[in-house]
Amino acid sequence: MKCLLLIDLQNGFCPGGNLAVPGGDEVIPIANRLMEEGGYDLVVASQDWHPAGHGSFASSHPGRQPFEMGELKGQPQVLWPDHCVEHTDDAALHPKLDLKKIDYIQKKGMDRLVDSYSAFRDNDRSAHTGLADYLKERDVTELDIGGLATDYCVQASAIDAVEMLPGVRVRFVEDLSRGIDPATIAVAERAMAEAGVATVRASQILAEARGA
Q: Keywords for this entry (predicted)?
């Protein structure tokens, strides 16, 4: 059972969004092509879905500015601009993403007291989203992951997938992903490799699907 996990392909992380990732919208056509031609049995998308006043927002910390470092529930926390607030256009999946091909959407980041980079669990690792159980119930054996942003939510999701889905082959789809900062992207890619996550490109996945 081969699954594609699309991480946070939302308006908020694309140009014009409240926390835009450089080139974030460039991955949407790649996602659509992989869903159509990549040979996947299952497609899952994660969606940042924060309540207003979430603790990760700089605006929730008087006197603090976006992108400063703070703390949330005992964890170091980047203080972000308000983004992906539930039921807003900023939180919506990108309008050009082919939603008809997505089998399941996993919302995350709904606890205002802790952030959730990973699609699988909160940053303090205490609360699970239920995605791991969903994939286990469907006997997923191969999981390809990409999206926004490489150095935060993609990295956390890929590393958690290795730990929480033993025996599943986990791959990071490099050109299906964009990150915030070249330095932290490089750190994230090394961390994923050290955790046992292989790196592939969309062209390789498409060739595999064609039997090439």
A: Hydrolase, Metal-binding, Pyridine nucleotide biosynthesis
Determine whether 84 is an active site residue: no
Q: Which residue of the set 3, 14, 84, 153 is catalytic?
A: 153
Look at residue 212 in the predicted model and tell me its pLDDT: 58
**In this predicted structure, what is the pLDDT of residue 75?**
82
The verdict on whether 8 is a catalytic residue reads yes
**Which of 48, 84, 108, 151 is flagged as catalytic?**
108
Checking if the pLDDT of 191 tops 70, the result is: yes
Is there a catalytic annotation at residue 153? yes
Percent of the chain with pLDDT over 70: 100
pLDDT single digits (tens) 111-123: 999 999 999 999 9
Question: Could you give the domains of the chain?
Answer: 2-50+86-210 (3.40.50.850)
Catalytic entry in 2, 8, 122, 160: 8
pLDDT digits (tens, 9 = 90+) for 69-107: 999 988 889 999 999 999 999 999 999 999 999 999 999
